[in-house]
Amino acid sequence: MFALYTSNRTEALAEQLASVICESGGQSPFTKALFLVQSREMERMLSQFLADRFGVWGNSSYLLPTQFIEHICQILGAELRSDAFDRSILTWRLELLLRETSEPALQPLKSYLSGDQADLKRFQFARQIAHLFDQYQIMRPELIRAWDAGRRFTGNSAEGWQQHLWNKLRQTSAGTHRGEVIGSLIDHLRRQPQDVPQELRRVFVFGLHTLPPQFLRILTALADSVDVHFFLLAPCAFYWGDMDTRRARVGSGAAEHPPPGSGTFHPLLAGLGRQGADFQELLLDQVEEMRDGPELFTRHDEAPDMPVLYRLQNDLLDGFWDETGAPAPGPAEDESVVIVSCHSRMRETAVLKDHILKWLSDDPELQLHDIVVMAPDIQHYAELIPAVFKDVAHDISDCRKRRDNRYVAIFAQFLDIFSGRFSGPEIISLLDQPEVRTTFSIGSSELETIKHWLDDVGVRWGLSGTQRRQDGFHEFQVGTWHDGLERLLLGLAAGVKDPVDSLVPYIDIEGGDAELLGSLCSFIELIDLGRRTTSRLQTLQNWSLALHDLSSRLFGTADSADLLNLQEMLTGLAEQPKGYHDQPVSFAVIHQWFEYEAEATSSVDFLRGRLTFCSMLPMRSIPFKIICLLGLNDGE
Question: What is the pTM for the complete model shown?
């Protein structure tokens, strides 16, 4: 059975979910409730709601779409060997294949993948194509099947080299890709509809606005033998799958903005609801037997002084635009929709705080966790929010790893040094990090002494004259770290002003500073070791070991979960593509790889009972009493 429950309110869908769980009953408490969700935020929201609703909630499993497929395959004993076609592994496999641009099929790529920084361009290009092939496996299975059969599928000029690369990937791996896994799973479910274990007898799909056709086919195949309950959030109570977009209307010669009273779909629905419309068509096309749930749509009571937000929601619920005459009057102080123009991001954040404090003061029942602040990219505000909201309990979600994990940020800073000129300020900035100073037993006050020394001996840039020559500069020793340290050490050892072999000792250093000078020398030795390490071509396995060694020397044996996370990242460099890539790569490629990893986002700090800041991500249908938007700026 495939049951569809549709509403314009997530709260109503959650209440219906609780009712379905109560009504169906008859399931062992030792059998997990299986949920298919789009995000971990939805998992947390549902868990909290069901715990409040029932008093206790547990033994449930929340799976993302790809995890859901893997889980079903494991339960049914289906063979699942798609690792070779995972995006991260595909990147390195393609990087290897793109080295052979002499092949006729790859001639269109040759000019781009040659010249300066060819290795870096090759890696970046491989990463983009890996993302594309990853999408093809799910969204374009008919294209993949045509390529596997040796046929072209489109008339696009880029299809030739893409097909060639895909065929090479297939020839060099015995594994199956995700498209084949999904196809085999669908066939298995349809051939043996009764061969479904107890833990798959009831599946709840919640918070998904759309699904790839292949994923929906799995659910419809499961529905032949199990109960699939699909909870769909939709702004409109009627079918709008056949609406025309603004572009389609213009292309057909119709008016871009239909006149009032023409009975056309609401402009916001037509402009922003295309994805939901396509999914409605997909449901009608693929689900043959569907049971509609009860009426769950919520309409605001009509009133002369209805707030503009309520009126807009009612219009969207009806689906049609029939605006005649002057706009209806609203309440005298209508704050259901507030638009504030500010001259900078800092000012935006400050004004937002003023509004939030006012709302909390005016409504004693309003709590911080009832408010969410969203932005297209919350990273633009990640440094401003802690400063402005320092006296308000808040969490920032969807930040990049380099912000959430100090060890990742510091190690990224460490690697940046080897692409620069080894200037005094950038190296001292690294040493100024508490995690690094602790490793070398240097206190904050002692760092000021080191800065004074370096300024006096004239350390400017470059590790040594030899390093300058190797990096393409004129070879001279003055102003380098090697020259400055030699003057410091000679001053400590000789204690006189007279030059020694044309080197002037620095005498303003005492015997008690020997340990501090030794720590500084050890730190610079690590920088020099890193320079020698990063100047060589190495395999991914050797790079992983080398980066592990450098991180251990930089951070010591600190007991930290963040450091462990960094080490897992470095281990993944060797483990993920193991057996698929054995050729040496340059540091520029490894540096870019680490930048990509450090820029990845996480949603760990979401729905923790405090004011939440997050990015505007799709499928985030979490209900809040107040939603604030930052960063909707002209030109961005």
Answer: 0.85
